Model the fold of this input.
Amino acid sequence: QVQLVGSGGGLVQPGGSLRLSCTASGSIFKIYAMRWYRQAPGKQREWVGTIESGGTTFYADSVKGRFIISIDKDKNTEYLQMNSLKPEDTAVYSCNADVEPYGSPENQYWGQGTQVTVSS
Done:
């Protein structure tokens, strides 16, 4: 019905940048919010940031000032621009969205994770 597909992970050196994408597809009436989460090995999943349908963004303190979330409503795609990356940003990043499909109530959907490794 609704699918989220994330992409863009990879290996980057400390101080470098990387951009992740997450595209929602299917029978979508409205997307209310999209989020990014990450999970490092041996740690709990951590919320990274949220973008609401109106464009308002919220960030975890750990990434504020370095990461930027944006959205292309025409493409139902959110982006996570990650700058000044640190080794502690290494994690599997997953996207999440509050979506109302046509003819169905609003629900939360998850994309598959994409690995981001920050290492020299």
Remarks:
- The radius of gyration is 14 Å.
- The chain is about 0% helix and 60% strand.
- The chain has a mean pLDDT of 96.
- The CA atoms of residues 5 and 111 lie 5 Å apart.
